Amino acid sequence: MKINGVPYRSVWIDQTDNRTVCIFDQTKLPFSLVTLQLTTSAEVAHAITSMQVRGAPLIGAVAAYGLALALSKDASDAAMEDEAAMLAATRPTAINLRWAIERMLTKLRAVAEKDRVAVAYDEAGHICDEDAAQNEAIGRHGLELIREIAKNKKSGEKINILTHCNAGWIATVDWGTALAPIYMAYDEGLPVHVWVDETRPRNQGAALTAWELGSHGVPHTVIVDNAGGHLMQHGKVDLVIVGTDRVTAQGDVANKIGTYLKALAAHDNGIPFWVALPSTTIDWRVRDGLREIPIEERSPQEVTTVTGETAAGELQTVRITPQGSNAANPAFDVTPARLVTGLITERGRCTASAEGLRKLFPGSIS
Ligand SMILES: CSC[C@@H](O)[C@@H](O)C(=O)COP(=O)(O)O
């Protein structure tokens, strides 16, 4: 996608040394666009845990490059396995992370030590290219859905889409998942308007989705997380599209905390609730999302504080709760398949069910 007319991806390799991994520091957005240069696997791990990079597909891609950086220091079998395990453990819920590391290891275990660095950069590059292509395809399939909704509207009438968290291009290598169809709809002149859930505690909606949509010119309105149900009751939402960190083989969906409540409200109001994902987000090994998907618990400090920019342009974190109050911070929840209207994948749309997934990805369910 473009920033001020210049095309960017969310991760790239520095052309001057063909080694350094470059990312945008997402903890600084929307206030400033800062590029970080990562030169060690420890820096990559820190970038993932501190959420300088985030979003399931992107952390997988960046971790893959992290392994390449690790191998450029020590390409032995033992170091490779240790570093891979270290990177895979940085965040527990997004399956793309484990998927990317396993794919790298499968490739690299078959390669002589001396060739590993080159092969690792190459494979990580393929992971990035494939992610960008898959998300573009998701965009095309999701666009059809938005066109169908547009057909039932009067000419020029707004199509109101609600989204939660950030599943845009900076959560992936390019395009995004939930936002890809919205970008394409906007680009072809459909009158889309996006309700952006702020997504406490880290405000990925208010900070990142709003920044992305605004940079592209897509009309949007930031709302507090609790407003969605009210808007749905009053006919102000036509469609919900969210991303996901892990979809089970029977179609349960783990996504940013609060997604489940939006799905319940959408269900109660008869509003379509779609989940956009590349197939790398499907965990074919698990079926029951509630019992089998590990939910990341993050620091209570993310709940007891908020961070924003002062009038002087400095980032400031302030406390918003009494000193003695406890806080809990589960970062994801699971929406059962029965509340999901359908899945938008790179191969097309399907129901959120083992049957639906099997039709699109024959042979994948064990
Ligand atoms: C295409 S990104 C899909 C998901 O990773 C996204 O919806 C999400 O929940 C991101 O959570 P985050 O904690 O910001 O990494």
TrEMBL record:
Entry binding sites for substrate: R54, G55, A56, R91, Q204, N255, K256
InterPro entries: IF-2B-related (IPR000649), IF-M1Pi (IPR005251), IF_2B-like_C (IPR042529), Initiation_fac_2B_a/b/d (IPR011559), M1Pi_N (IPR027363), NagB/RpiA_transferase-like (IPR037171)
Active site: D245 (proton donor)
GO molecular function ontology, one term from the record: S-methyl-5-thioribose-1-phosphate isomerase activity
Sites annotated Transition state stabilizer: C165
Record's keyword terms, sorted: Amino-acid biosynthesis, Isomerase, Methionine biosynthesis
Catalysis performed (reactions): 5-(methylsulfanyl)-alpha-D-ribose 1-phosphate = 5-(methylsulfanyl)-D-ribulose 1-phosphate
Entry keyword annotation includes Kinase: no
Enzyme kind, highest EC tier: isomerase
Family in the record: Belongs to the EIF-2B alpha/beta/delta subunits family. MtnA subfamily.
Protein name per its UniProtKB record: Methylthioribose-1-phosphate isomerase
Organism (species): Acetobacter conturbans
